[in-house]
Amino acid sequence: MSYLDELVTRVYTGILYPFYLFCMLAIHYVNEHVVIPLWMRMNAQRLPLINTCVLVGDGISMGIGDHISRGGLASRVRVMLREQGKQDFKIMLPWRILSRGKVGATTKDWLPVPDRQGAESVSESQPSTQRQQQQQQSNLFTDTFVKGDFGRPDVVVLFLGSEDMANNISPKQTLENLKAITSQLLALGVKKVLVATCAYMADRVDDQLEREHAERNRLITQWVEKETGNRTGIFEGPDLMKVVNQGEMLIEFGGSIMFTDAAFRQLTPLLMDALRNPMKQVEWPKLVNLSHAAGML
């Protein structure tokens, strides 16, 4: 690597990427802690009708890699719902779209605590290192769904597993982790859980990695199809490989592989197509009650 190439790499990694990440997180904070609460206050009379959908997982769920002006995946979904929700997707009630995630997060990072009591309930008899590791693994789930400030969401979309390969998590373990996460979400009262397939996030073509990735998605798809057929509340999320396979949808930035803004542009309608039926199922009881109330007037 020449001196100029090394300098450019250092500038991107040490300055531009942290600045971009700061801007995206700032936009995310303003949207979810200022704009959306203000919107809910303005619609105070309709609060019982407002539903909540949370996108959780790795950097994809947070829209990291998207253009700053777009604000990430949740912002894109909010815009599409506002502009096309009723006409194209038959979504009749207002939805609050939130996102919670961490760049590079794996299925292991999102594992719930064993007894729903939070990381503090980990046995004191365990070695301190083991307790710390278990607490760290549980923080994302606990902070989001147990200690979260948005109440119990109606729909959760999981964007998890894409980072598992880079962290030596086997396809079978990815599946077991997803089962544990979805099971706990449903136990907490989440009505619908969508599970997206994994994106191939490697920066090179490798036959062994591609086989492992294909096996991971095969296991996830088979399990989700079975659960959907059994009407357990688990649904197929968007197929992220439909985005990746279109070419030039990934970029290396700051030492990380992430979706480009073009990828998020392609992903948004795929996500809305996956959300359509679960959202309508959540809305149906409220729409029936509204109809009965209107008929009694």
Can you tell me about this structure?
There is one protein chain. The longest helix has 40 residues, at 3-42. The chain is of the alpha/beta class. The protein is 54% helix and 11% strand. It has helices spanning 3-42, 59-62, 73-89, 128-146, 171-187, 207-229, 240-244, 261-296, and strands at residues 51-57, 95-101, 155-159, 192-195, 234-236, 250-253, 256-259. Helix 5 links the parallel strand 3 (155-159) and strand 4.
What's the SSE blueprint?
Blueprint: H1 3-42, E1 51-57, H2 59-62, H3 73-89, E2 95-101, H4 128-146, E3 155-159, H5 171-187, E4 192-195, H6 207-229, E5 234-236, H7 240-244, E6 250-253, E7 256-259, H8 261-296
Parallel strand pairs: 1-2, 1-3, 3-4, 4-5
Antiparallel strand pairs: 6-7
Helix pairs in contact: 3-8, 5-6
Which properties best describe this structure?
alpha/beta; single chain; 5-stranded parallel sheet; 297 residues; globular; 11% strand; two-stranded antiparallel sheet
Query: How much strand?
Result: 5-15%
Percent helix range: 40-55%
Largest sheet: 5 strands, parallel
Number of strands: 7
SSE succession: HEHHEHEHEHEHEEH
Subunit arrangement of the protein: single chain
Q: What is the rounded distance between the termini? A: 76 Å
Can you summarize this structure?
This protein is of the alpha/beta class. The chain has eight helices and seven strands. The strands form two sheets. The protein has a five-stranded parallel β-sheet, with helices on both faces. A two-stranded antiparallel ribbon has the order 6-7.
